[in-house]
Amino acid sequence: MDTHSGSCLCSKVRFEIDAIFHGFFLCHCSRCRKTTGSAHGANLFSKAANFRWLEGEANVKTFRVPGSRFLTTFCDTCGSTLPTFDKGHLLVPAGSLDSAVDCQPDGHIFVASRAEWDHDLELVPRFNSVPDIT
User: Fold this and answer.
1) Sequence ranges of the domains in the chain
2) Which CATH architecture has domain 2-115?
3) pTM for this structure?
4) Cβ distance 28 to 39 under 8 Å?
């Protein structure tokens, strides 16, 4: 098992995980797009993990979309998405980790729901900082 550390944007919440990740998926469902504000969520999954909140557990909030299985966990100060437990499984937003993950995504899921602008992104120009937009 590998040990990973993570935190939220404001650093009030910190956590550690001993886990083997059983899946790494880029989820294009509308709910993952809403929680990330991006084209997709990048989520790691583990069936067996030892998870510990190191700091800020009181700042951790959970929201379940009424009438659904969709659950998101976040810092109530900065809004960063955090790991979620549901039915014995751990879902870890890859961007919440401070340590490196040595695997590539296994695939894209819920692609029929992807954003209309989410195509041919490898062709979009790349910059190392914000370009001059004036």
Assistant:
1) 2-115
2) Beta Complex (2.170)
3) 0.88
4) yes
Q: Is the pLDDT of residue 113 over 90?
A: yes
Please report, in angstroms and rounded to a whole number, the separation of the first and last CA atoms in the chain. Answer: 49
Q: Please write the tens of the pLDDT for every residue from 17-35.
A: 998 899 999 999 999 999 9
Q: Are 42 and 95 in contact (CB under 8 A)?
A: yes
How many CA atoms within 13 Å lie on the side-chain side of 94?
20
- Maximal CA-CA distance, the chain: 50
Q: Is 83 exposed, middle or buried, given 0-12, 13-18 or 19+ CB atoms closer than 10 A?
A: buried
Pairing of strands 23-27, 107-109: parallel
